Amino acid sequence: MSGEQNLYDPQYVKGVFDRCSDRYIAFSYACSFGFTERWRRQCVAALAAPADARVGYDLMAGTGEVWPHLLAANPEIERIIAVDISSGMHRRALARLHIMRAHRIEFVEDDILASELPDESADFIVSTFGLKTFNASQHRKLASLVARVLRPGGRFAFIEASDPRVWWLRPLYLFHLKVVLPLIECILLRGAQDFSMIGNYSTAFGDASAFGSMLEREGLIVRFQKHFFGCATSVSGAKS
Ligand SMILES: C[S@@+](CC[C@H](N)C(=O)[O-])C[C@H]1O[C@@H](n2cnc3c(N)ncnc32)[C@H](O)[C@@H]1O
Questions:
Q1: Which of 85-94, 139-148, 165-174 has the lowest mean pLDDT?
Q2: What residues does 223 pair with on adjacent strands?
């Protein structure tokens, strides 16, 4: 599969994550040295959900790793609507990890880029590591969906692994993505190439600043933050 068109085709991305779903949690934790968990917590802190938040979306929810952090920080939340194009990721996650909170989770299998989520239906929108598999025009669609779906006063936060662009860290970051990840995958996962594929999306993504500008153009208040010298970046804010 080659060319931007194909790599960013939602059905192609769905295939990558359906194939990864069994091993995604362990692999992403190990290969990020545990940073992904810390960044999910920081994303929830940046969300700063309003005290009256009851219902909201976890977009590109995957295996739902952000839910424990979100519900611990905001015990008053009644319902998280998890949206993901890959039901494989979700099914396994609910069965294995989230039985005790399953009554507060609703799952919508949907391509977010073609989604008809209702206007002003969310007190909050959170999303962890779901930006990198979109190109610029898809990011614009997503920004417009966030502005449409949030109720006035509602808050959002997105975080994504990013290119640190710091001279001393960048070579390490690229070595990790381009050499270490494919090697681990080759040895431990018998040569499947889906996790290395996720590495390719990360290199092409850059950071969340461009997506932040798109959210601003949609009229949202936006704050851009770097995490661990820019190895992850987040955009968070509110609809006034
Ligand atoms: C890297 S995983 C992130 C999962 C989880 N949020 C986390 O914190 O680990 C990205 C998720 O985005 C989903 N995804 C990719 N494209 C999508 C789309 N167009 N619509 C909905 N979900 C999508 C994938 O199926 C995958 O579960």
A1: 85-94
A2: 236
Give distance in angstroms: CA of 153 to centre of ligand 1: 26
Q: Is the CB of 112 under 6 A from ligand 1?
A: yes
Among 57, 61, 63, smallest CA distance to 84 is for 61
AA letter at 157: A
Residue-level pLDDT at 190: 55
Alpha helices (runs of H) in 56-135, residue ranges in sequence order: 67-73, 87-97
Establish whether residue 160 lines the binding site of ligand 1, counting it when its CB lies within 6 angstroms of any ligand atom. no
User: Ligand 1: distance of its center to the CA of 74 in Å?
Assistant: 23
pLDDT tens sequence across 174-232: 888 777 777 776 666 654 566 677 777 888 999 999 999 999 999 999 999 999 999 99
Query: Closest Cα to residue 30, out of 168, 176, 133, 230?
Result: 176
pLDDT in tens, 159-176: 999 988 888 888 888 888
Enumerate residues 6+ apart whose C-beta is below 8 A from 140.
Answer: 214
Which of these, 116, 135, 122, 153, lies nearest to 214 by C-alpha position? 135
Whether the CB of 169 sits within 6 Å of ligand 1:
no
Tell which atom from ligand 1 comes closest to the C-alpha of 86.
Answer: 25
Alpha helical stretches, state H, the chain = 4-7, 10-20, 24-31, 35-47, 67-73, 87-97, 136-149, 170-175, 181-188, 194-205, 209-217
Phi, psi (rounded to 5 degrees) for 75: -65, -15
User: pLDDT above 70 covers what percent of the chain?
Assistant: 87
